[in-house]
Design brief:
Layout: H1 2-38, H2 47-71, E1 74-75, E2 82-84, H3 94-115, H4 125-144, H5 148-156, H6 165-176
Antiparallel strand pairs: 1-2
Helix pairs in contact: 1-2, 1-3, 2-3
Length: 186
């Protein structure tokens, strides 16, 4: 069963990596095509728009190479048998954020080709979201002196402490005097 899961992850990673390689190439072509079609006056691009494109393309290139290294399945060169499926590229967290940054970069590349250089302002979504995550997970709890879990508990007031089903069952048995349950005296 575990080998089947490894094959599934390897297949999903190979598909994601194919899409990633296409995604690094197609937005540049679409941006150029849209510039030719809608904004012929912006050709050749200004130094500023080229600088923005390069400054945003470099992190995208770094992230795509990182995801390729991390998610490429390793196979035996002679038999083609799967050695390692690579890291799961569908996992939440940092991997998901890497893909989100790539998607925003690609959208800004295409949008700037179709609508103009003002479209690059949407790229600010990335640092704004990073700031939000930093505030809610690290800075806010340190400054306010409480975590989100403790703030929810303090707002609840007189709510009972959570007890697992097993603990509840054992408590009921001990109340009935069941000999299978040893009572612990404090």
């Amino acid at each position: 069963m575990a080998h089947g899961a490894a094959k599934r992850i390897a297949q999903q990673n190979e598909q994601a990596l194919r899409n990633l390689r296409l995604g690094m190439f197609i937005p540049t072509l679409l941006s150029t095509f849209f510039r030719l079609l809608f904004r012929r006056s912006s050709l050749p691009p200004s130094k500023g728009s080229l600088a923005i494109y390069i400054v945003t393309f470099l992190p995208a290139l770094f992230l795509s190479r990182y995801l390729e290294r991390m998610g490429t399945p390793r196979r035996d060169p002679t038999t083609g048998a799967l050695i390692s499926p690579g890291e799961d590229l569908n996992q939440p967290g940092v991997t998901e954020w890497c893909f989100d940054i790539l998607y925003v970069t690609w959208a800004c590349q295409i949008g700037s080709g179709a609508f103009g250089e003002w479209f690059w302002w949407f790229y600010l979504i990335i640092p704004l979201y990073a700031g939000y995550k930093l505030w809610t997970n690290f800075i806010g709890p340190m400054v306010l002196g409480r975590s989100s879990a403790s703030s929810a508990a303090s707002e609840g007031g007189n709510e009972k402490e959570t007890v697992s089903k097993r603990q509840e069952k054992l408590r009921k048995r001990s109340e009935r005097g069941d000999p299978r349950v040893r009572s612990v005296r404090k």
